[in-house]
Amino acid sequence: MSITRRSARRSVRILGVASASAAVVLGLSSTALACNIRDFKAEAKCDGDKGVIVVTDTDASGTPAKITVFATNSGGVETKVGEQEVKGSAQGTPVSFPEEWKPNATYRVHIKAANIVDEDIQPGLTTPSTACKTASPTPTAPASSKPTPTPTKSSPATPAPSASGPSSAPASAPSNAPSPAAGHSNLAETGASSNTGLIAGIAGALVVVGGGAVYFGMRRRGARGNG
């Protein structure tokens, strides 16, 4: 049985369609396995009380890539945070950049993978509104280690004796006996009046007068005896 031209043409057409379909499938497969910017994801996280920026590479082809992270301030000035190389995997390969990020800060993450990818992750990274590390409480002045003295009942102070003052011996109790009058002797009173001296003087004078009288009397008697 000979093959007609019509049958040959039909066979060639079928082979062409099959080849084109295979090329499309292979192209799609290679495109799916090739490194792509969508294979990278950046996040701001906390490692305990420290901040980190984590970039995950989910490139199943494992194409080596270089990741560079920049911090962007409000004036548009950028500061390089760090740069690392990564080889992705279907499960995802994370890379961490230590960074004490502030709330609502912005970062630019650039990916360079051979001649396939050379661009930034879009949109840019914005950190959460809450920082990892809470503000430390205001330090207070330490309490004094000196113990507070406990108030006690103090005993009345005893006055110190003065060097030039009178003796500290207690004064004797006042006596009910009358004190001797000024100008009189220190002899104890016996109940006589204060005119004792005057009476003694008169008595003495009387003794003198009496003695004189006796003297004159004896002289007179002697004169009579002689006559």
Question: Topology of this protein?
Answer:
Elements: H1 5-33, E1 40-47, E2 50-57, E3 64-72, E4 78-87, E5 93-98, E6 106-113, E7 117-120, E8 125-126, H2 196-226
Antiparallel strand pairs: 1-2, 2-5, 3-4, 3-6, 6-7, 6-8
In short:
The chain is of the alpha+beta class.
Care to describe what's here?
The chain is α+β, with helices and mostly antiparallel strands. It has a domain at 37-126: Immunoglobulins (Immunoglobulin-like), CATH 2.60.40.10. Helices cover 26% and strands 24% of the residues. The chain has 2 helices and 8 strands; from the N terminus they run αββββββββα. It has helices spanning 5-33, 196-226; strands at 40-47, 50-57, 64-72, 78-87, 93-98, 106-113, 117-120, 125-126. It is rod-shaped, with a radius of gyration of 69 Å. Residues 22-31, 163-171 and 181-192 have low confidence and may be disordered.
Please give a handful of descriptors for the protein shown.
single chain; about 230 residues; alpha+beta; Immunoglobulin-like; five-stranded antiparallel beta sheet; three-stranded antiparallel beta sheet; 8 strands; rod-shaped
Structural class: alpha+beta
Determine the number of helices (DSSP H or I, runs of at least 4 residues): 2
Fourth-tier CATH superfamily name of the domain at 37-126: Immunoglobulins
Q: Over all CA atoms, what is the radius of gyration?
A: 69 Å
Q: Span from first to last CA?
A: 246 Å
Shape: rod-shaped
Tell me the CATH architecture of the domain at 37-126: Sandwich
